[in-house]
Structure formats: structure tokens, C-alpha cells
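User: Could you go from structure to sequence for me? I need the amino acid at each position, not a summary. C-alpha cells:
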């Protein structure tokens, strides 16, 4: 076997015509597909209907926030612990004199 990350051909004698031409047909195909993709990208217009776009955005945002709220509510004990740890760490850091020599 060769070094890791190298591909082995099943049949080294089987070389495609495009590989024999040093990839010239591949480059033509790649350039035409890139041009097609560019035309498609330029044809996409997000703000063709701004009211509809904003409506969908608000609905998606509301759905995402609702899902996040539900996940937090189901894990309320974990949320409470995290809030308490952050509050205690904040209080410990804000104490001016106590423990400043050790921190």
C-alpha cells in the first residue's frame, strides 16, 4: 500500500481519454459548468418580494426562538445551575478586598 491519503487505482491500465489529453476536456466541462452556475446565481433575487421575504424571516425567527425556549424549559435545572455558577463567579470576582492576594 502507498502512503496514507493517496488513492490507488483498481486497474492502472484503465486511463480515460480525458486523462490522456491532460484534462483538456475536463477543463472545458468545468468552465461551462462554472458559467452555468454563475448565470443561475445571478438570476436568484432575494428581494424580488421584500414583504414575503420579511414575513418568512419573521416566521422562521419565531419558530427558532420558540424551539430554543422549549429546549431551555426542558433543561431548566441545568439552566438554573449554570446561572448560579456564573452569578457566584461574578460575585467572587467583584469582591474588592477578599482573596485578591491569591487570585
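Assistant: Here is the amino acid at each position, in order:
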Amino acid at each position: 500500500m502507498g502512503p496514507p491519503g493517496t488513492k490507488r487505482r483498481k486497474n492502472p491500465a484503465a486511463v480515460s481519454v480525458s486523462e490522456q489529453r491532460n484534462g483538456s476536456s475536463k477543463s472545458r466541462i468545468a468552465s461551462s459548468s462554472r458559467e452555468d452556475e454563475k448565470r443561475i446565481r445571478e438570476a436568484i433575487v432575494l428581494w424580488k418580494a421584500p414583504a414575503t421575504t420579511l414575513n418568512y424571516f419573521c416566521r422562521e425567527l419565531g419558530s427558532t426562538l420558540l424551539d430554543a425556549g422549549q429546549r431551555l424549559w426542558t433543561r431548566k435545572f441545568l439552566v438554573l445551575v449554570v446561572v448560579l455558577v456564573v452569578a457566584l463567579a461574578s460575585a467572587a470576582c467583584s469582591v474588592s478586598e477578599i482573596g485578591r492576594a491569591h487570585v
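One structural detail worth keeping in mind: The helical segments are 17-20, 24-43, 50-74, 76-94.
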